[in-house]
Amino acid sequence: KETKDQLVIDAGQKHFGATMCKSCGMIYTASNPEDELQHVQHHHRFLEGIKYTGWKKERVVAEFWDGKIVLVLSHDPSYAIRKVEDVQELVDYELGFQQVVPRCPNRTKTFLFISDEKKVVGCLIAEPIKQAFRVLSEPTGPESPSSKECHRAWQCSDIPEPAICGISRIWVFRLKRRKRIARRLVDTLRNCFMFGCFLSTNEIAFSDPTPDGKLFATKYCNT
Ligand code: ACO
Ligand code: ZN
Predict the structure, then answer these.
(1) HSE, side-chain direction, 13 A CA sphere, residue 198
(2) Tens digit of pLDDT for each residue in 8-26?
(3) What tens digit of pLDDT does each residue of 17-55 get?
(4) pLDDT (tens digit per residue) in 168-184
(5) What's the ipTM?
(6) DSSP letters spanning 185-214
(7) Helix or strand holding residue 73 (H, E)
(8) Nearest protein Cα to ligand 1, atom 24
(9) How far is the CA of 222 from the centre of ligand 2 (A)?
(10) How many CB atoms lie within 10 A of CB 124?
(11) How far is the CA of 45 from the centre of ligand 2 (A)?
(12) Can you tell me the distance from the alpha carbon of 187 to that of 189, in angstroms, rounded to the nearest whole number?
């Protein structure tokens, strides 16, 4: 398809002369010493951050052939909370978020997707909300190349709609994307957020989505 070819060409131009590290996923120019140094620093911190050694008490809420989802709640042991904080720091760094204090940290639920290589390869942070504002569809539509550009000022409706669960972060390790990990995290969230009921897609809301987040959310909510 025409749009697909275009995306491949764009990606090639953007990362011309660049390599992607096969273990941490960082894209950098190997011939540039500054870049290389930055990579070495990131590489170690990142791999340390996503390392998962296994916990004595872990709340496994879903299991798959390629991994499992563990739920962490605010009153869990400090080793679990520390891992969540480490992962959130990596995610926020990648998303370019400044330190954001969660609105009600004691009601935050964090879902970690643990790969069978014992790495945290996905993370979803959710919190209870009362209302959300619908993102208005752009005149160009989600398939158009312009939505790949890095602008984040989506037009939102000013009419609040009732919602139950807000997704404040969703992230999947760069080298594990497009394997339905995000989808499985949201499915599991809908199943576990409120005891005894499966939330509809209207009851969940993505806060301030990135272009990637918006593409995923649009696809997820329509299927
Ligand atoms: N472009 C187009 N479609 C996409 C994309 C994308 N980048 N990502 C997901 N989709 C759609 C696809 O239709 C996909 O199905 P397919 O692969 O069969 O075509 C469907 O969504 C399901 O995708 P998953 O494989 O479940 O998504 P993935 O595990 O790759 O994770 C995510 C998606 C979390 C957005 C990932 O790309 C990521 O971590 N990006 C960087 C961080 C980020 O921007 N997170 C969102 C922030 S917004 C927020 O946190 C509220
Ligand atoms: Zn690396």
Answers:
(1) 3
(2) 444 544 545 789 999 999 9
(3) 789 999 999 999 888 889 999 999 999 999 999 999 999
(4) 999 999 999 999 999 99
(5) 0.98
(6) HHHHHHHHSSTT----GGGEEESS--HHHH
(7) strand 67-73
(8) 180
(9) 35
(10) 25
(11) 10
(12) 5
